[in-house]
Specification:
Radius of gyration: 16 Å
Organism: Leptothoe spongobia TAU-MAC 1115
Order of helices and strands: HH
Shape: elongated
CATH superfamily: E3 ubiquitin-protein ligase SopA
Number of helices: 2
Distance between the termini: 45 Å
Pfam family, one: Pentapeptide
Protein name: Pentapeptide repeat-containing protein
CATH topology: Pectate Lyase C-like
Number of strands: 0
Length: 177
């Protein structure tokens, strides 16, 4: 369960939360299983925060810092993560159905067993991100930076992912070999 004091500070707004984070660098915030559905967390410093099993569906996290954050089993469906720092974030088993992660930094993020169906990762940096057993059906990987197709070799529904903008006359898809 989320720490009540941490939730209270979060609800006070980005300025109060970020100041508290600067003054309490030794504390790793606990927002486990918190109901943050539809909450505006744009610009929040959530680095190293425990958000496992939290409900962040339809939340607005534009340009937030979620690097090294534990989001295991979290619900981020229809969430706005545009321009968010998600370096080394842990999304094991998370639900990112139809989430918007365009222009995000996903370097070394872990998406094992996550649901990324219909997620938008266009123009994101995915350097060394792990997608093993993640469902990438209709996931938009258009113009992603540093994507090695081997990163997707263990993903489910890889053949249904959107890997590049296609010319209608171009029927060639990148292969894993």
């Amino acid at each position: 369960m989320a720490h009540p004091e941490h939730l209270e500070i979060l609800q006070a707004g980005a300025r109060v939360w970020n100041r508290w984070r600067q003054q309490n660098t030794q504390i790793r915030p606990n927002l486990r299983a918190a109901d943050l559905k539809g909450v505006d967390l744009a610009g929040f410093n959530l680095r190293l925060t425990y958000l496992s099993s939290a409900d962040l569906s339809r939340a607005y996290l534009f340009e937030a810092n979620l690097s090294e954050t534990n989001l295991q089993g979290a619900n981020l469906s229809h969430c706005c993560l545009i321009g968010t720092d998600l370096q080394q974030a842990y999304f094991s088993g998370a639900n990112l159905y139809h989430a918007y992660l365009s222009q995000a930094n996903l370097t070394e993020a872990y998406f094992g067993h996550a649901n990324l169906e219909k997620a938008n990762l266009a123009d994101s940096v995915v350097n060394q991100a792990y997608f093993g057993q993640a469902d990438v059906k209709e996931t938009d990987f258009t113009s992603v930076k540093n994507l090695n197709l081997l990163q997707l070799r263990l993903a489910r529904n890889f053949e249904l992912a959107i890997l590049a903008k296609h010319d209608p006359q171009d029927q060639v898809r990148p292969s894993l070999t």
